[in-house]
Design goal:
By secondary structure, this protein is α+β, with helices and mostly antiparallel strands. The chain contains 9 helices and 9 strands. The radius of gyration is 17 Å and the shape is globular.
Length: 249
């Protein structure tokens, strides 16, 4: 089945006016904190007439936000798509829509994301591979991102992802996690997956604080969530959630 990305862009508030920088300056020379704040208002639920997949493109929204947080070049990214190169909230939303159309190969709503873990006879993780029908790889490839699927090291404790998450965080590269969750569409809040999930968010650690960017937000609402310890534990460390660790190529 398809995880239905009903809405999912990492929204963050524009800081250009406060910092004196233009939007393009923030993109080309930003800290992680600045870009998170810049993205804060970027909801996938936009009011643009030329986007049509608002309720389906959450995985693309989360992944594009990750790309920008990691320092990705927006102008280089849009060169493959019919989107203006200026970094604006509206153009980010347009690029979300364009990448969704590119990655959606089966014509069904949402981006089908599925991987298969590989364990030894002793139950130790030896690797993972994409499901043959997976569509999410087309999203990360369009953005030129490295991707690693986060799995437990043992098939006897499939929800225990702490060691793999910590390895990603301890690497020399900045990492952003794209996490499959259950989104309550009425309260616009996320919970850990029960079975397949219906939404993706982006999660990034800044200092000692984890932040989530949840694009399923009514236009005008902030997508930035300061995660408490329980949310981190339930959605990232010990969880059934599908988790991808993304770094910039």
């Amino acid at each position: 089945m398809k995880i239905h990305h009903l809405v999912c862009v990492l929204s963050l508030v524009l800081m250009a006016g406060c910092s004196g920088k233009t939007e393009q300056d923030v993109a080309m020379d930003h800290s992680v904190e600045e870009m998170i704040q810049w993205l804060k208002p970027v909801s996938q639920l936009d009011e643009l007439e030329d986007t049509v997949h608002d309720f389906e493109r959450c995985s693309v929204a989360a992944t594009l936000s990750a790309y920008l947080i990691l320092g990705g070049n927006f102008e280089a990214c849009v060169s493959r798509f019919d989107v203006e190169p200026d970094l604006t909230r509206e153009n980010v939303q347009r690029l979300q829509d364009a990448i969704y159309i590119h990655a959606n190969r089966d014509g069904e709503p949402g981006i089908f994301g599925s991987c298969i873990p590989e364990y030894s006879d002793a139950g130790a993780l030896t690797g993972w591979r994409w499901h043959p029908d997976d569509e999410y790889k087309h999203v990360v490839n369009a953005l030129g991102l490295n991707v690693d699927r986060i799995y437990s090291g043992s098939d006897s404790e499939p929800d225990d992802k702490r060691a793999a998450v910590q390895r990603a965080l301890n690497s020399d590269e900045q990492v952003v996690f794209v996490v499959g969750v259950d989104e309550d569409m009425d309260t616009e809040s996320f919970q850990p997956m029960v079975e397949l999930g219906n939404h993706y968010i982006a999660v990034v650690k800044v200092g000692d604080q984890f932040y989530a960017l949840d694009s399923y937000r009514t236009e005008g609402r902030s997508t930035l969530v300061e995660m408490n310890l329980e949310q981190v534990e339930d959605n990232l460390m010990y969880t059934p959630n599908a988790i991808f660790a993304l770094t910039l190529q």
